Every structure is written in structure tokens, then in C-alpha cells.
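task queued by scheduler; priority normal; single chain, no ligands, no partner chains; default sampling; output format set to C-alpha cells
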Amino acid sequence: MSSNPKLDRYDRAILRQLQRQGRMTKVALAEAVNLSPTPAHDRMKKLEKAGLITGYRAEVDLRRIAPMTEVLVEITLSNHRAEDFRRFEKEMESRPEVCTCWALGGGVDYMLRLVVEDVDAYQRLMDALLEGDVGIDRYFGYIVTKPVIDRPARIPD
């Protein structure tokens, strides 16, 4: 498939079903998309090979396992050379607390989604990043008080 593959209604239905429940059996997937098992499985494999399905994972309720705090952080870098962006991104990849890092257009360079034990752990992380000279000019953190909606993006019809 090309970088912008042509997907028919069956391909989209397979993607939607797997997005909802990645552990479906071949038979359950086939029934859900109104195909027989072999064509449904072949299509799924084709979507995986094309890189449209990038993995399967369990959704874990971390709050039931251990104390945690989610923080969204806006980051603006001091300098905006390619090497500055590379250095910052490399550092974010090395930090397990960073669950998501988005590069943004506009007045803010990055938005991070962090999961830390508590607010003190968040502040220790930010202090370490500032001391580590990864090029942060300023940051603003927002504590997530409760998740309201957290779902994958909708696959278009």
C-alpha cells in the first residue's frame, strides 16, 4: 500500500473493530465486519504490513495500581534550531514519565503528557530537565483532575 492507501468499507470496519477490541479472534472479527474468517484475517494482515495497524496493547487503569498524577505541560524552547529540537526530543524519549510528546505549531513548541507519582515527582522532573540544559525557556504545567474522554481518534467512513 502507498502512504495514502485506498481503504474500502471492510478495511475501515476492521480498523474500527480492532481499535475497540484488539484481542478479537479471527472469527469474531470476521463476524463483526460481515466477512468470512480468511478474507478478514488476510485484510488485517495487509493492514498490519502497510503500517496502518502499528501495534496492540492493553488499556490499564493505572489509578487502581498505584498513586499517579497526570500533567499536561506546554514547553517553549530558548532556541529554535534543528539541533535544539533534536536534543529536546531525544531527552523526552529517554524519560519514562513522558507518555506523549507533541511538537506544535504556534506559540508553544511542545505539549507533553506526563504520568508521575505525585506533584512533587512532577516538579523534580521539571527541575531535572531545567538543570539538564535541554533548552527549555519556559513551561506551564496543568494537573489533570479527572479524565473525561480518552479515546482513539475516529476512523473516517
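post-processing summary
- The chain has a mean pLDDT of 93.
- The first strand starts at residue 69 and ends at 77.
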